[in-house]
Amino acid sequence: MHRIDGPGAVNNLFSAGDPTVPQMATVVTPEWLNDVQENIARVILAAGITLVKGDYDQLRQALAILSGSGLVGEVIPWFADELPASGDWLKAQGLQLPKLDYPLLFDVWGYTYGGEGALFGTPKLNGIFLRGVDDGAGVDLDTDIRTNRGDGVTGDRVGTKQTSATLDHVHGLFVGNPGTGVGSENGGFGTAYAGSGTVQSTAGLLSQTEGGMFMTGANSGWHRNQISRYETRPVNIAVQYIFRWR
Q1: Gene3D superfamilies under this entry (predicted)?
Q2: Run of H or E including 63
Q3: In this predicted structure, what is the pLDDT of residue 64?
Q4: Exposure check for the chain: N or C terminus, fewer CB within 10 A?
């Protein structure tokens, strides 16, 4: 790169010229134009972007990528209702986007999240918790039931899905002295309930016809702790997942 040094340049600056001095207008030389062109083009290419005639946004995109401000296709949690003012982000709500309008994003995702022809799909993360792909680590032991991410791919792959689940487990049961109701912890395990055939079950309750327990009364052993009718979930805060498209 070099500063303008052609005829009419004044201290390596452009001049409009002044006939009263006289001072000629600066001549923009091919050497200077080629220098500017190649410096700009190589910044764009270094960011992995193919030069496209008529695309006036490529230098800005390249600077954003090379400065570490983000990669096309990255997803972040956003703690606001409105999208960032830069215009570089879209909501991860399963949008179908035109390939021609979002070429950089299509290069990253293709049809991974659905779509065909002129349109391609994007991740739908409404109400979803994100989880790192197991990638053979053996932490997610239910990868065999992970469902289609949008392009027919299932199993241990990025973008596949799981429904909610609760780990298999057992609940101990305290059984009190004969009579209706259930004994306390201190009174349990000492005497079998009449007709129950067992003092403690770790495999769930049998039905009465199977010789299991039959409990009556307002204080009987049946109970339920209801947090949600719909799912099992941790403490959480709602965010908006958004992705960079340029």
Answers
A1: Phage tail collar domain
A2: helix 58-66
A3: 80
A4: N
Helices 58-66 & 30-46 angle (0-180, nearest 10): 50
d(CA 3, CA 77): 44
58-62, 75-79, 88-92, 167-171: segment of lowest average pLDDT: 167-171
Buried b (16+ CB within 10 A) or exposed e, 172-204: ebbbbeeeeebbeeeebeeeebeebebeebeee
Cβ contact 205:172 at 8 Å? no
Distance between CA 139 and CA 145 in Å, rounded?
A: 14
**Counting Cβ atoms within 10 Å, is residue 72 exposed (0-12), middle (13-18) or buried (19+)?**
buried
Q: What's the pLDDT score for residue 209?
A: 52
Q: What is the pTM of this model?
A: 0.57
How big, in percent rounded to 5, are the helix, strand and coil portions of the chain? 15, 10, 75
From the list 84, 74, 43, the residue with the least C-alpha distance to 61 is: 43
DSSP assignment of 21-40 equals TTBPPPP--HHHHHHHHHHH
pLDDT per position as a tens digit, 202-220: 444 554 454 555 444 444 4
For residue 98, the surrounding DSSP H or E stretch is: strand 96-98
* Cβ atoms within 10 Å of 233's Cβ, excluding its own: 10
Other residues' Cβ atoms within 10 Å of the Cβ of residue 157: 15
Residue 118's pLDDT band (cuts 50, 70, 90): very high
